[in-house]
Amino acid sequence: MNSQTLKLIGRRFFAAAMSLIFVIVTVFAITNVLPGDATDAVLGQGATPQAVAVMRHDLGLDRSVFFRFWFWLWGVLHGDFGHSLLNGLSVADAIGPRLHNSLLLAGASAAVSVPVSLFLGITSAIWKDTVYDRVVSIMTLGMVSVPEFVIATMAVYVFAVRLHLLPALADVGSVHSLRQFLSVFFMPVASLALVTLAQMVRMTRAAMADTLSAPYIEMALLKGVGPIRLILVHAIPNAIGPIVNAVALSLSSLLGGVVVIEVVFTYPGISGLMVDAVSSRDVPTVQACALVFCVTYLFLTTFADVVTILSLPRGRKA
Amino acid sequence: MQAASVLHRRSVLKGAGLLVAGMTSQSVKAAPVSGGHLKVAGAVGSASETLDPARQSMATDYIRGHLFYDGLISLDDRLNPHFALAEALDSNDFLTWQIRLRRNVQFHDGTALTADDVVFSLRRHQDPGVGSQQYALARTMQSVRAVSPVLVEIVLDAPNSDFPAILGISNFAIVKAGTTDFKVPNGTGPFRCQEFTPGIRTVAVRNSEFWGERPYLESVELIAIPDEMARHNALMSGDVDLIATVNPRLVQMLKQGGFGIVESPVGTYTDLSIRLDQRYGRSPDFVEGIKFLLNREQIRHSVFLGFSRVGNDQPIPPESPYFNHQLPQRSYDPDKAQFLLKRSGFLGETIPLVCSPAALASVDIAVVLQYAASQIGQKMAVHRVPADGYWTQYWMKAPLGFGNINPRPAPSLTFELGFASTSPWNESRWRNSHFDSLLRDAKSTRDNSRKRQLYWDMQELVSSGSGVCIPNFTNSLDAYAPHVCGLRPSQAGQLMGYDFARSVWLNENRGKKV
Question: Mutation test of the interface with chain B: which of A171, A182, A267, A275, choosing the one with the most B Cβ atoms within 10 A?
Fold first, then answer.
């Protein structure tokens, strides 16, 4: 690895850190600009000015916005994500099991969608403009055009309500065996995989087709390189950058962008928690969720960029 | 003054010795079976769910409250008070109340119930920091003290013959003295808590040490499915046995599929309140005109699909024994409305109407009203605002805005909180000293027929004078799988007043479980 590559990677990490700070400050600011605060959510219709004042004081909401932000940041830097304004429980405890659920769902969806989309993308690039390519193309376009709630709701109607084959609720707590895991996760994973698949297939196909039309591939062919060796050794290393980027972008949405799937299957994930927290103005929980989403996103995109940088012939030179 | 025991005075408490709270004559008749696991889905749930009875404010919270805790008094399906943790409740003057506690009652941690627990449980509502939903009502208790380990004395700030009903409000459930952490509920209720994850699930198992009639169910699992479609699907696929808040449009389909429906005439209403101290409401003609413009029958048919009862701009629902049925029903009269609105001088103006999904069905009611207004040349602008923050940001602040009021266990409470001159929840800022004095009389009178007359007069005053328009009372709809037995409608709220778990049992021929 040469110094220029290191510099590029360093710059990439710096940009990621800056994005993180920007997102955290923005989310905090926006949550505070929203009308009302957590006392509204707790007291609701029963709120009287006196009760609101006492509760605001107890929760520290009467302090200035800047103080509250530094207080929160100081805690986070020391590994303390604070306590929920609604029930006083530790935010880390509230997020922990839900993050676990979300990672499980995202992981299972990625495990299905990444291999399938790479396979479909690469093969349709190889057999470009054949019937196979057209069929894959039309199918993926079709899937990306149907909103996930339609796919998910139809699946529930057919497999749960009509056929009684699968549960309508994704009850993670009931999973104790592989069979239960498959029956609980089949529909949510299939719905998520279908919507994330399309983008990855199309990007992979485009990157591979581009590489395969390069003169050096023709040269390799003329030299008599076999088809499998041609794809794996000559083509993929040069197409890996855009492919990894497409995969990273698709996967990053699997953690935070699955509110709809969580709602349809009543899946206790972290997106739903954040939506709840925003509507009840539970700022520490909102912040912690935002932090988790942002770190995941930055990790994936930075990882993809580093792979891209390293895959450049310049970077590959040791 | 002659000593009058509540037991003698109030016919409603007479049956208390025979009817143990929650047990029903109907359930005995059909030979219930003990055992089984019931899975229930409520409609509201979030990370803000709590096991602190004082702060419980959502339907699923109330269910948990009834599973794990008991009050001194319980309310039956007609809102009549019965003894629960109290064994006797006496007052000579409705001002000082002596409460004798039931003996041999144990908390889930094995400790015995004492007067100290009751004093602690009631007094904590008066601390604003606790965030109690019943802060205002708790403040009417001037002193709460333990006279002996089984005797509690409460002195109110003014006589109130409906105090037993107040003690039946589930927020006033009894907790162990000194409890500050409600992660694990330590109550006296029929179920113990096995698992509670806010916003995800609650698992309750039968409390073998329960003081009362033991529930049939071995265990209850409660989850919240806020998405309507997902909730109905979960019932139809057999994932849950019982759901609350059924969409009226789906009732027919569910019935055809063999599912049972419970329609409860709860006293909940969505009202349009016109602030009498702001621009439009200052004109009595305007207020009356709007009342004549509300097409109550149309709202009943097209907004509630028939699952509601027509209201008469006063808060006592028709099924209450105190309902004034001689008060003429106000009906849709566009001509009268046009005349009155013209006389008020606002006919040419565009009237803003604030509604929100937070106030059930208010958006639809606003649209029905807007259409009726357009027919007589009265322009209205419907402002639909978001649900979060509605109760603090908009409710009772807009000149014309919607509210949603839950039933109270006694008419005096409904009147006191919503219509008394000094109440912070007087939605239309209606001040009527005659009404206030009738309310005081009603709360201190011993004579039930006089009380009824007073409540009748008050309904008339509210209907004609206040700025609160009540077009309909809503019915709550629950749906259950065929193997669930023992559910009945209740005026106390959905799912048998949130207290189904004490009475429901499961039939052996249960449907296929996934």
Answer: A171
Residue B110 carries which DSSP code? S
Predicted-complex ipTM score = 0.83
Residue A31 counted as domain residue? no
CATH of the domain at A130: 1.10.3720.10
Interchain proximity A54–B199, CB inside 8 Å: no
**CB-CB neighbors (< 8 A) of A62 in chain B:** none
pLDDT tens readout for residues B86-127: 999 999 999 999 999 999 999 999 999 999 999 999 999 999
Q: Which of residues 150-169 of A touch B (CB under 8 A)?
A: 153, 156-157, 160-161, 164, 166-169
Total domains present in chain A: 1
Q: Does any domain span residue A102?
A: yes
Residue A62 lies in a domain: no
In a domain, A39, yes or no: no
Asked if B199 and A43 come within 8 Å (Cβ–Cβ), the reply is no
Q: CB within 8 A of A123, min separation 6: which ones? A: A132, A136
Residue B161: name the closest of B213, B89, B108 by CA. Answer: B89
List, for residues A251-278, the tens digit of each pLDDT value: 888 876 788 888 899 898 898 889 888 8
A residues 31-60 closer than 8 Å to B (CB): 34-36, 39-55, 58
Closest partner residue to B128 (CB to CB) among A51, A89, A265 is: A51
Domain span including residue A296: 3-12+96-311
Listing DSSP states for B208-269 in one string gives: TT-SSSPPS-SEEEEEE--SHHHHHHHHHTTS-SEESS--GGGHHHHHHTT-EEEEE----E
The answer to whether A89 faces chain B, any CB pair under 8 Å, is: yes
